[in-house]
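I'd like us to work through together how a protein chain folds, taking it slowly. To get us started, please write out a protein record for me. Label the sequence line and the structure token line clearly, so we can match residues to local backbone shapes. Once you have written the record down, we can walk along the chain together.
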Amino acid sequence: MTAARSHKVMVAYSSSNRAQEVEEFLSLSSRFNSMLVEMGNLAGVEMSIPADVIIVDLQKVNDRELDILTELRARFVGIPLIIVSEALSEAQMRRLFKLHVHDWLSKPLDKKQFYASLQSAVHNAKIIESQVHAVVSASGGAGATSISISMAQMLARSKGKVRSTVALFDLDFSTGNCGYILNQPSAFGIDSVIESPSRIDAEFVNIIRQQHSDHFNIFSFKRPDMVIQPQSEELVLRMLDAVSMQHDHTILDIPYYETPWKQEILAAVNSISIVCEMNLPSLKHARELVERVSAARSDSYSLNVLVNKYESSWLGNSISQKELKELFGDVSVTTLAADASTMNESFNRGVLPYEVNGRSKFLRDLTKFVKISDLVAAS
């Protein structure tokens, strides 16, 4: 019988004696191969080092160690992170949750619980390497929702015998417009989990999702008071974690206005497409959003500006390519042709734009963008 594969576990510790219990448990199983790193030396660890799981063994969780954890999460995106420490306060637990921690284990460690958590982390890491793509409006009416919907359909399109699993996650709870545009508004009331976000799991996701005939799942809810709910941030982030774990690609339709969860999401997704129009106010909003995202992130991700509803004219455009370059520097800028007739009919009939006009210039431009961007590279 062939021996089981040995999983590599990186153990980061805060002092010379803090990782002993973790090391002892790992040494008892031939399935795990551990590598110890002192937290102060994490900056020297190569990002390319293959690790199936990272365990961080802490005495206490203070501000300095939380900062190190934030940097660790940014450098090793997608690797399950397990925290081992003494008891934590509610505020500390919330900060850990925002780092998309797979699990937290209290000291002294329970051996059965430790192995269960470790095995779950390895299993989840191998099931799917999910990609999350944010499509965010720079200003109202820019058309990010239309782009999000068509992107979801394009990524879900069959490629030979393999079909990517795709979710469309509508983060504009003020309207739930993705569901309305596709004529599939959700009848599920999320009130039942607003007060207890911990109830959100894979089973809950299966209950609330709606499947579109073009093979992508829709998560869209109209709940205008969501932004003022005390538990809204935790609720949305938990929903996003649960949804993205079950799909190869998750498209997020993010509105232009501020929400408690917007910054956290933009700091964690794999790609960001900022949608604006070819007028100076909208372009300036897009530039401000580019600057905001760039200042908040130091990891590798894809950032693009999509100038939607673009109309070329033989008289020339009031805003030149040179001016766009001055506004956005090295950030990729793509124009998507205006096609009001196709989009209006699509909205009125509750069908996708390609069903109205497969030769739409808007779809031609968006298809080209999706093919040359990291969205296809990740699929």
In short: Confidence is low (pLDDT under 50) at residues 1-5. The CA atoms of residues 217 and 357 lie 23 Å apart. The two ends are 34 Å apart (CA to CA). DSSP finds 16 helices and 13 strands in the chain.
